[in-house]
């Protein structure tokens, strides 16, 4: 569903994807027990058409396409959000600069948990280095990229094995514990689909290593629940303050208050603010075509 700018969306996704994805539209995933390399590119803007090539050829093609559609937020209609945002003086230039930008979801929740734990209380650059080492040590090669290890792969390890990648002792223990719960069926991810946001956040916070920030991050980025905001995130607080609070740094409670009027797109607003600020400040060539 348009508008959609795949090149821009993918550049933002791949910027910190370590060895899992390339900026040119490829990503390594698991499908039917095989590390699989996907090549994606946009061949038409209106209506948007994404060409997909997979190696090896995936079984259950319809399910595979459905998974990719979820990854790309293909069914997200941005027009209602844009119509409302363009009536706001602060958000109008942000959305006009990023027309067609959609968040890209990791293909499975265990990968999302690895991402979230690696980013707890460290910089994005430091988390990126940890994930690079993690993928190099335990990922499955697909072409030049690495598919993230599966929960069962990490459940077979000990926390000390993950320490060598740069995870702290506590994070390594949490990650192995979460992998064991998923691999053993104790954590039933499929059942989360029908749960309300608040109910699911409460459930997730009962697992080791998952606090409020991590739970909200898992929902908005991992499950695509775009009304959820990890309001205690320092980056979120700073960009919300920069664009919506006169430059001051708000508390997490103030972030929630400032974004309350943007429901059901509160998480999407935060994503657009983060993307706009990153593009304006980090010097990358975000217009590079895929």
Could you give the order of the helices and strands? HEEEHHHHHEEHHHHHHHH
Quaternary organization: single chain
The main sheet orders its strands as 1-2-3
What is the helix fraction of residues, given as a range? 40-55%
Rounded to an integer, what's the Rg over CA atoms? 19 Å
Which outline best applies? Answer: globular
Strand content: 5-15%
Which residue ranges are poorly predicted, with pLDDT under 50 across at least 5 consecutive positions? none
Number of helices: 14
Separation of termini? 19 Å
Helix/strand structural class: mainly alpha
- Biggest pleated-sheet summary: 3 strands, antiparallel
| Annotation, overall tally of beta strands | 5
The whole-number mean of residue pLDDT values reads 94
Description:
The chain is mainly alpha-helical and 290 residues long. It has a domain at 6-74. It is built from 14 helices and 5 strands. It has helices at residues 6-14, 61-72, 79-85, 92-97, 109-119, 124-138, 151-155, 159-163, 169-183, 197-204, 212-222, 234-244, 252-259, 266-281; strands at residues 26-31, 34-44, 49-55, 140-142, 145-147. The strands form 2 sheets. It has a 3-stranded antiparallel sheet, with no helix packed on it. Strand 2 and strand 3 form a beta hairpin. Helix 5 (109-119) packs across helix 6 and helix 10 crosses helix 11 (212-222). The longest helix has 16 residues, at 266-281. The radius of gyration is 19 Å and the shape is globular. The mean pLDDT is 94.
């Amino acid at each position: 569903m348009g508008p959609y700018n795949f090149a821009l969306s993918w550049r933002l996704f791949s910027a910190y994807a370590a060895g899992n994805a390339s900026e040119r539209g490829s990503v390594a995933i698991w499908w039917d027990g095989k590390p699989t390399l996907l090549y994606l590119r946009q061949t038409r803007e209106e209506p948007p058409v994404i060409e997909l090539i997979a190696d090896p050829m995936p079984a259950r093609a319809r399910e595979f396409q459905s998974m990719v559609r979820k990854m790309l937020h293909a069914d997200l209609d941005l027009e209602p959000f844009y119509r409302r945002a363009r009536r706001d003086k602060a958000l109008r230039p942000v959305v006009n600069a990023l027309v067609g930008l959609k968040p890209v979801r990791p293909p499975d929740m265990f990968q999302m948990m690895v991402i979230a734990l690696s980013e707890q209380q460290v910089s994005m650059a430091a988390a990126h280095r940890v994930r690079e080492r993690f993928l190099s040590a335990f990922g499955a090669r697909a072409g030049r990229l690495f598919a993230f290890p599966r929960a069962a792969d990490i459940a077979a390890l000990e926390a000390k094995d993950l320490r060598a990648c740069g995870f702290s002792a506590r994070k390594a223990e949490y990650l192995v514990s979460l992998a064991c719960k998923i691999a053993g069926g104790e954590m039933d991810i499929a059942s989360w689909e029908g749960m309300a946001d608040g109910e699911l956040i409460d459930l997730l916070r009962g697992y080791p290593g998952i606090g409020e920030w991590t739970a909200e991050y898992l929902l908005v980025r991992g499950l695509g629940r775009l009304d959820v905001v990890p309001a205690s995130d320092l980056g979120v607080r700073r960009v919300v303050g920069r664009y919506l609070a006169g430059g001051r740094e708000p508390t997490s409670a103030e972030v929630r208050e400032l974004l309350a009027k943007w429901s059901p797109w509160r998480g999407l607003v935060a994503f657009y603010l983060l993307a706009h600020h990153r593009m304006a400040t980090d010097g990358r060539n975000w217009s590079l075509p895929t």
